Amino acid sequence: MIRVVLPYHLRTLARVDGEVRLELGGPATLAALIDALEARYPHLRGTVRDPFTGRRRPFLRFFACQEDLSHQPLEALLPEAVSSGAEPLLIVAAVAGG
Amino acid sequence: MSRVRVLAGTRKGAFILTADGSRRDWDISGPHFGGWEIYHLKGSPAEPNRIYASQSSGWVGQLIQRSDDGGRSWGAVGNEFAYDGETATHQWYDGTPHPFEFKRVWHLEPAPSDPDTIYAGVEDAALFRSTDGGLTWQELGGLRRQGSSARWQPGAGGLCLHTVLLDPRQDRISVAISAAGAFRSDDGGSTWRPINRGLRSDFLPAPEAEIGHCVHRLAAHPARPQTLYMQKHWDVMRSDDAGESWYEVSGNLPVDFGFVIEVHAHEPETIYVVPIKSDSEHYPPDGALRVWRSRTGGHEWEPLSSGLPQSNCYVNVLREAMAVDSLEPCGIYFGTTGGQVYASRDGGDHWEAIVRDLPPVLSVEVQTLP
Predict the structure, then answer these.
(1) Which residues are CB-contacts of B281 (< 8 A; sequence separation ≥ 6)?
(2) pTM for this one?
(3) Rounded to an integer, what is the distance from CA B168 to the centroid of its chain?
(4) Which residues of chain B neighbour A49 with C-beta distances below 8 Å?
(5) How far apart are alpha carbons B60 and B37 in whole angstroms?
(6) What is the domain count for chain B?
(7) Is residue B350 part of a domain?
(8) Where do the domains of chain A lie, and which CATH numbers do they carry?
């Protein structure tokens, strides 16, 4: 079980409070995590990554275990602490004014 | 008694204002989708409680929301706008080729007789259609394949398709793109051609070129689809032959720059614009907000200022932000970047703010309900 913390607008879109908990069938990668997130919450399809390029939305970041995972390939394995559920994966929206 | 529902899209959410036919006391609900940019909302003429909304964010992209109960509850529908065919390019600001990339939906146009059919005008400029209530979208790719799209160039607001006029009696669709011009299909969207003859834009190397005009808005009266009105970047234009040729009707307007243009619900020759000082300033002349009305289909205009701020007013009125109801007398509505929605119950003679201090208003649509 993987724990995911969504940014505010994605929580309201998915109509969830607090953390999201996901079960991944295979290897615990960011790609598999986003697949599971979109399957569980179809309203989030295309919001974390562009549906056509598959790229992370540039104003969203993936943080875990005090590391920035945003630039690692989506197919790379997540840290053990995330895949075991000990630590959440944080999807963080860039701060901005206005 | 009839009711009126005003759908206001803003930079930070959607607001729905409702009143009975007297249009005096307004109930305001919202923000719906608080914090999100709502470029446009529009109800289905065939099923007025079905409302579609374009919800977008610079962080997480585009969503389409649909309500089937008049805006009380909403559900996201499809948001995959895949361009048809091979990757094509348009002209970038520096003149180099740039691939078409989907950015957002500017305009939603439900079909008159089928609540499940809806058109979406998007940036980068293309026209999409859904026939399943917004669940899936298909591009009407003939528009971008008609031969000129490699020369389309974005205006400062982006390469957006922002106006969709449907004339189902003739299977006709007319659209406008900033800054490419107007285009028309006479076969339901399969094939297209530019309809820009008579337009003149001095910012172009060839001012009367077929392509490159920054059309801000088109309007037509449903009973007179051959007559099109246009607020171009500069110039208010008119066509009496569905866009085959255009002529200028700016007449005595104090300035012919602006964004909105709208037609009275019962008088096809009565039209409204909101002159804006210039493309460098984007606020009303003399700090005085005035709607100008022509009862002669252009050329002769009169200012309407009763109830509108006549000093220290520096708001803009964006291209989607004017609409009319179909009551008698006709109601006229417009929203400002200062967050006011103004309404007139008497065809424009008198105005009042039916809400103020909203986020900047991007769009206003009006539904007249039984």
Answers:
(1) none
(2) 0.96
(3) 19
(4) none
(5) 11
(6) 1
(7) no
(8) 2-93 (3.10.20.30)
